[in-house]
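[Solved] Which block belongs to which protein?

Original post:
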Amino acid sequence: MTLRQELSSWLSPSSLLLSPTPSIGSKAPPAPKLQLPDTNGKPTILTFLRHCGCPFAEKTFLSLRAIASAHPSINYIAISHSSHASTKKWLEAIGGPGSVEVIVDEERIIFAHWGLGTSGWGHVLSPGGLWSVYKLGKEEGIWNRPTESGSRWQTAGSWAVDERGVVRWGAVAGRADEIPDFAEGMRALEEAEWNSEGR
């Protein structure tokens, strides 16, 4: 990593035409490289990551990887907007992808289809968020890693989509330090399945 790469992550990326953010009960947005519902007939939990190197992206990914290992009846997808090389290096540094499928979307096309654009100063550098960086490092040993590509201004988000392609849980992250509760997403999928069977 070079100083230039690190500094470039603070530059605002090019603006994209954003689709509306999917709401609960709506169909998952069609997007290149992301087919939902999956042809294997399973529901899917997906997360759009902040840049590789962000401690909150790391915590989010580790949480997703852990639940994916314990509950293989669901597909798990993480979408990175860092480059292929940076994403691969980052994954190796944090122990590999496990059972999570990782899609690289460097042009942020899938992000845009799901309504995920860039954020402002309050989202990235709020006092509470900065405190969360320190707390996450002290309590869990997850600190900032070198940022070789990607933007610190890109917003994150996570959703759960059932086997019919209907969004059952999720939202755009309200702040950079927001970590999604994937167990909550699983429960939403289970409840949707229960209701569809008329129980």
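(Second protein starts here: sequence line, then its structure tokens.)
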Amino acid sequence: MLGNLARSDEMCKSMVFRLQIHTILITALKNSSDTQVIHSVLSFLRNLGLAAETKQAIGEADAIGTVARLWSCDTLPQVAHAAASFTRQIINGSLPNVHRLLAPLSPDPDSPAHARTYLSLLLSLFDKSDDVTIKMEVARTVAAILRCTHSADRSSFGESRDTIEQRLYSLHPDLGQPLINMITQTQWPIIRSEGWFALALMARSKEGSTALDSILNRVELFGALEQTIRGQSSLAGARSHVGNSAVVSEGMPSVNFTDPVPRLDQEEDMRLKDRENAMVLVHELIRNRGDSMSDIRRSVLEDLIQGRNSSLSTQEMMIRMTAAG
């Protein structure tokens, strides 16, 4: 019942800063094994974290470290989904909480766990789970990290942005796969658009473009890139999933898996935005990696953004790019 009261920013701030309810909830998470209690507590904490001012306080109370143990509950999809959803909520727009998600699992530099982070554990949930909604929550968390690190003012970084991005990509070589899943799924067009935006952000930095260039040969990524830029979007595929589409509100995106599919004019707007972000991705790849690319790879990408048709199939282009390196 108390969770239903945490619906306004003022009420959330009062509960967190005056009543310290979040600390009680986090303690309950640490001590409870009752799935219903855990799910209810996570929902309550998620509501409390809606206010920008409360996110940091909840993070400071070891929320990420506490909820991390629930990411391994892939055999309990309801719990794992709630835990992933709360994580996305609490790091969205909060650079301090992004720092916490990227913290090493062990402070001991000689420990193997020092090279792994809480994000590593979350990405493991993505790999292990067969639940598509859990995979999308993890993927959207990755997108939220990229949005946060690229939109934050440099003065707000405790360490340089280059250092953070180096850590983000070097310790998580599989970071791009969740984003690929976002742009290749056809059930929720708005999640696909969110994925293209995140990939475009990823390509803007030296570290991100290097990571992206290394996975460009994956057929699902390059195929989606070519289709989106050439205007062959698979948005129409969402029409075969009526009742399972997505709606996004202004500000922090929210997904309702039971809302109707977007109208045709909304689909066209998303298609144009996806193409624009895919074009930005290629432009940034060429800008950051063009000098180290093979002539064939660079030529294929330049043909894409300049609208030149190729006599080669997508598979043939990929074979040539892979062979050329």
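Accepted answer:
You had them paired correctly. Confirming on the second one: The radius of gyration is 21 Å.
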